[in-house]
């Protein structure tokens, strides 16, 4: 509806739209933003590849072509696509079921996962299935992100401690860490803890300090974002100078120098089958995360994004990742905010970032040899702990117990059984609780608020009623799950009320009446007729009335359909 | 709520309630009804056992103790419990996966299935989970019954033709029948076709003829119901006299004489696991069928049934079936109507029927030796074809395409892949379509109907509006699946409308606002504030207002919450 004005070509290639008005100002702003994001992305991409259990260079590869693809097909002007923490964790969980970490099969499976995920996103985009993502409620997402943050941070502890540990849920991880505590490497621990402390300080204290020292806010911001690069440089130098790699400090080691290789996903039915469920979840969660960030940022500039085209943008990015040695990517929250704050005006900023990363892959990789894994783990821990936020538990507890149940289930099951179980259970539970609530709707008996034409619940307001007329307001769509509920309620209410001549069903809150509910209404109509009571409807909405007109019900109805409840009572009282 | 007046003892033992007032009149009526139902049940119970692939006597056993159990625990005064067609078909499908027909394992699995099904029903009853059955919509049930009727009738053709054929879906069955057509037994075919024709005639033509002959309506009714017994007696005699069992006519053969044996379900984890899904479906479908009949019949006498206690009644019946050599039972439609019409006043009629069947098991079983299976197949075919009704397709096509889709899917998948797939797909599809519809709600812009205080859609009614005030009526609960939809709609509508000062969200159709939707409303509030537009709410329902009061939203809201839409416009226009 909204974008029908665009020609099909521009619908699928937003670059044709913004490209037309691209100018020197936009170019300058995009390039500045790209430099800042590149500085931030180099350590992050290495770290997230580590988190996914993949070689460090795959993080770089996932930050080149996918960004170019998004610049062509994406609609958000600020979204920074690339490897992100949650999707890296989900990749590790999905691929870990298929192959052993460190093997060629493992990397091949991650590439295939990116391809599958891209395919799913593209299909969803072409068929405009973006609405499916709405079934991930905010509380479920919040719970899932918090629990993932905890799992990710815990999983990185092994790199800080310099031990071997593994597991896809909290219990496994903690248990594994405790059984390996005797292997702690003291030098790794020193590097890890120092880096973590430094990065926390950079995040909280550096910017205010720089501002106090007289730097301009934007410069202070950029320097603060470069903190992780500082940690990388310093710990790499220290490791190299003191030969710490010979004293138990795990290093990244040799990273191939050069542009991404051309890769082909595995076309193997067994692999596809076992990765399919994970690919669906990764696609939907990646999409939801991207769209939330993109929408928030677009709104700040009164711009719009097109969710269904975002599916195509992200789909293309993942296909690009899979053909260039990468792994599943999506729009990252923190990086997009930085991109936006740094002044990115169009998706071209992403393409320039890709050039930056490509240069890094060409020139800097030899310098990464002595980079301690502990430093990368520290950047991950600091990044994900900022996502951990239990306040959603308190908010939902106060506001809605159903939402609380969904959050709590998501958090507990994610921690206990891993990300896929957690998020699936959260979605199913929130849908079930919604259905359960609509299956036993709130029903109010209403009367006239004196001095108005407005009708309200007799139990909450001082209202006027007429003993011969009963008005029932059902606060829900009438559909199969609650059709019988209304029947039961009405019979219970009507039996023994001898003064009653008319029952009015006030339909102001009834947005749909399905076949099951129609049959119930027919039964109610006949049953009331047997009792000598007439059934009327009032305030039936247009779409519902259209539909009722296609059935026999209006013909069989003993009473009338009134435009307004006030009109109904006026006429029936007369 | 409704039955809190009952003491717990009477809640779980309805017999204590109706038993107090039981008198000679009720006894007479119940006994007459029991005689008629017994006559009808003898051939039916044998036939349905055959349909389930079980020895004929298991049909009799399933018609003794289960009826007594229901008389004690059930609340319906007319429901006739016992073997029914659809559940027998489902038993065959479930048990057929586990063991070969005719083996001891097959019978043992059916007994275990009854036990599991009883257990599930009891648990649902104790936890009052009867509402779960509401998620089977009327169209899905109608489609499922029609498709099952077709499958059952087709499956019985092999007995009419005297050939071997098998399969759990239509394609398998038809294919199997065609490949075995060369085995047709001519004598079987004669018996089968004659019986079928006779039974169809009895159903349509016998009663009017008897009435014309001067019989009283009730007597004519009873004789018409005895038709199947007539077919059984005549074909058995013919087979015996001419020794047709030696000319290819399959007969029931020796049926053990005596009361049901004591049986114990198999306590085997593997068997339980593989039967569990089927047991759940059989329980819910059996429950839905029973409750629909029971409610219809109860309503005719202004009586009530208690659905959650019905679960306990049916659960007890199935446990009783499993300890006395039976198989899953439920309340049958046709038999219950006969029971009701014959004058049954209390569940005691069921107990008397049980005595009748027990006497039959003791005395009549030797007489069943020469009973042709073709006769039983004919009674099944005639019974189930009356269930086949495609009119639901036309009704739903006219009324609701979503319901049509659910019916069509249920019918096609039941025919193509069997009963369990069909009904599961129907339920899931109808839930999905409901969710899909609520995820893109109808939203109307409303104005004042002149001369009233009533507001309606500006596109459907002649109404008065004010360019400075936009009133939006969202016709749906605001929840996670549509929260973003409302945001998108509002921004699209508001952008570029420079006259706009106030937006009123008319909440007469909003029955719930969950956490996700609350966040959207907060975003809308802030976004409109940035544009210099005030957001108001009107006609917020009591329960929704209570909940909003527990959040920050009302505090942050730029505008006000008005009791009525008319009051809002009056105040804001002034």
TrEMBL record, chains A, B:
Membrane topology: Multi-pass membrane protein
SUPFAM superfamilies recorded: SpoIIaa-like
Span of domain STAS: 459-574
InterPro entries for this protein: SLC26A/SulP_dom, SLC26A/SulP_fam, STAS_dom, STAS_dom_sf
Subcellular location(s) of the protein: Membrane
One GO CC term on file: membrane
Spans through the membrane: 31-51, 107-129, 135-153, 184-202, 222-242, 275-299, 311-329, 349-369, 376-393, 405-436
GO biological process: transmembrane transport
Keywords: Membrane, Transmembrane, Transmembrane helix
Pfam family, one: Sulfate_transp
Protein name from the UniProt record: Putative sulfate transporter/MT1781
């Amino acid at each position: 509806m909204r974008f029908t004005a665009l020609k099909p070509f521009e619908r699928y290639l937003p670059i044709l739209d913004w490209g037309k008005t691209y100018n020197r100002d936009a170019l300058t702003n995009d390039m500045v933003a790209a430099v800042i994001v590149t500085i931030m992305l180099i350590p992050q991409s290495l770290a997230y590849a580590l988190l996914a259990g993949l070689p460090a260079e795959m993080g770089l590869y996932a930050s080149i072509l996918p960004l170019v693809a998004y610049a062509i097909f994406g609609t958000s002007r600020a979204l920074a696509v690339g490897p992100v923490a949650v999707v890296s964790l989900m990749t590790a969980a999905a691929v870990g079921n298929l192959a052993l970490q460190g093997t060629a099969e493992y990397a091949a499976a991650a590439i295939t996962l990116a391809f599958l995920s891209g395919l799913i996103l593209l299909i969803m985009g072409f068929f405009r299935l973006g609405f499916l993502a709405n079934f991930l409620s905010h509380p479920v997402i919040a719970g899932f992100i918090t629990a993932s943050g905890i799992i990710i941070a815990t999983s990185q502890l092994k790199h800080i401690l310099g031990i071997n540990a593994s597991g896809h849920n909290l219990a496994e991880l903690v248990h594994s860490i405790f059984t390996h505590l005797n292997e702690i490497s003291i030098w790794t621990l020193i590097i890890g803890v120092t880096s973590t402390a430094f990065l926390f300080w950079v995040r909280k204290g550096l910017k205010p300090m720089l501002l106090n020292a007289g730097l301009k806010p934007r410069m202070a911001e950029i320097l603060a974002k470069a903190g992780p690069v500082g940690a990388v440089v310093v710990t790499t130098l220290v490791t190299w100078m003191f030969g710490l790699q010979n004293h138990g400090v795990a290093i990244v080691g040799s990273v191939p120098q050069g542009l991404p290789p051309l890769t082909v996903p595995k076309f193997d039915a067994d692999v596809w089958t076992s990765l399919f469920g994970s690919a669906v979840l990764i696609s939907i969660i990646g999409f939801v995360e991207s769209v939330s960030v993109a929408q928030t940022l677009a709104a700040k500039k009164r711009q719009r994004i097109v969710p269904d085209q975002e599916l195509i943008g992200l789909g293309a990015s993942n296909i690009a990742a899979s053909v260039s040695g990468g792994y599943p990517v999506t729009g990252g929250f923190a990086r997009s905010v930085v991109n936006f704050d740094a002044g990115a005006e169009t998706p071209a900023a992403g393409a320039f970032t890709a050039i930056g990363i490509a240069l890094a892959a060409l020139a800097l990789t030899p310098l990464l040899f002595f980079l301690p894994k502990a430093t990368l783990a520290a950047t991950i821990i600091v990044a994900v702990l900022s996502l951990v936020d239990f306040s959603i538990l308190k908010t939902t507890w106060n506001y809605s117990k159903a939402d609380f149940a969904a959050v709590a289930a998501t958090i507990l099951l994610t921690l206990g059984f891993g990300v896929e179980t957690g998020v699936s259970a959260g979605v199913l539970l929130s849908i079930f609780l919604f259905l359960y609530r609509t299956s036993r709707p709130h029903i109010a008996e209403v009367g006239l608020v004196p001095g108005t034409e407005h009708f309200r619940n007799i139990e909450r307001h001082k209202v006027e009623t007429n003993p011969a007329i009963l008005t029932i307001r059902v606060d829900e769509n009438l559909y199969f799950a609650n059709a019988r509920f209304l029947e039961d309620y009405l019979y219970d209410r009507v039996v023994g009320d001898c003064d009653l001549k008319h029952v009015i069903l006030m339909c102001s809150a009834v947005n749909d009446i399905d076949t099951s509910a129609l049959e119930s209404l027919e039964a109610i109509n006949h049953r009331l007729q047997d009792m000598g009571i007439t059934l009327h409807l009032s305030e039936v909405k247009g779409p519902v009335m259209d539909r009722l007109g296609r059935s026999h019900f209006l013909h069989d109805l003993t009473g009338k359909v009134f435009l307004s409840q006030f009109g109904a009572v006026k006429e029936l009282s007369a």
